Amino acid sequence: ILESGLVFKQYPCCGGVHSLLDNMIGLRQKEALKANEVREIECRLHPSRIAYLDRPQASESLEAKFSIQYCVAAALSHGKIGLREFSEESLVQPQTRALMSKVRISPADDLPGFGSEVIVRKLDGKQVSSRLAEPRGSRNSPFTEDEMLRKFVDCAMEIMGAAQAEKAGAALMRLDREDSVENILKLLAPISPQRSGVTEHRH
C-alpha cells in the first residue's frame, strides 16, 4: 500500500467521468460560471470511455451515474456531486435537464485514459476551458485530509446525520493518535429513530 498508494473515488459515479467533474466544478468556481450563461459544454475524453458513458437522456439514478451529460450538467448546476445529486428530485431538476442538451462529447486520442478537457462556450462569445490528465484522488493527485473528510461526511450523513458524521470523520482522521477505538466506534453507530427524534411504530 505504501509503495503503490491508494486511489479514492471523489464522486459516487463511474470513475470515467471524474476528471470531467473536476474540470467542470473547477471552472464553475474559478470563472463564476452560471448555467444561464452557457451555450455549449464540450467534453473531450479518450474514445474508449465514450461508448459506455454517452447517455444523453439518463433518467434514473444508476444510469445517471454513467452519463457524461447528466454528471457534467449536475456539476455545473450544483457546484458539487454527491449522493444527493443522484436522488429522484435532482434527476428531474429543470435546469440540469436543460444543460444536458448543451453537452457535446468529442473523442480525444491525445488524452490519457482517465484524463479529460472541458470547454465551456458562453452566450456572450467567450470561452473557458480546463484540462486534467487524471482526476483528484489518484496516486499522482491525492486527496487532502479535508477532501477525504468531506467524502466521508457525504456518505455517512445519510445514516447518522451531518453533525455526527462530521464528528466521526474527524475522529477517524485522528485514528493513529487514539489510545482506544471505543469512542470512535460509538460515533460510527447510526442514529436510532429514538435518538433522531423519529418515533417508530410497530404493528
Please give a structural write-up.
With 203 residues, this protein is of the alpha+beta class. The chain has 9 helices and 4 strands; from the N terminus they run αβαααααβββααα. It has helices at residues 18-31, 47-53, 61-64, 68-78, 88-91, 94-100, 145-160, 162-173, 182-188, and strands spanning 38-45, 103-107, 116-122, 127-132. The protein has a 4-stranded mixed sheet. The longest helix is centred in the last third of the chain and has 16 residues, at 145-160.
Structural class: alpha+beta
List segments where confidence is low: pLDDT < 50 over at least 5 consecutive residues: 193-203
Q: Tell me, rounded to a whole number, the average pLDDT.
A: 88
Helix content: 40-55%
- The helix/strand series, from N terminus to C terminus, equals HEHHHHHEEEHHH
Number of strands: 4
Distance between the termini: 50 Å
Q: Strand order, main sheet: write it out.
A: 2-1-3-4
What kind of sheet is the major sheet?
4 strands, mixed
Approximate shape: globular
Query: Beta fraction of the residues?
Result: 5-15%
**Rg result:** 19 Å
What is the helix tally? Answer: 9
Please provide a brief summary of the model:
Helices cover 40% and strands 13% of the residues. The protein has helices at residues 18-31, 47-53, 61-64, 68-78, 88-91, 94-100, 145-160, 162-173, 182-188, and strands at residues 38-45, 103-107, 116-122, 127-132.
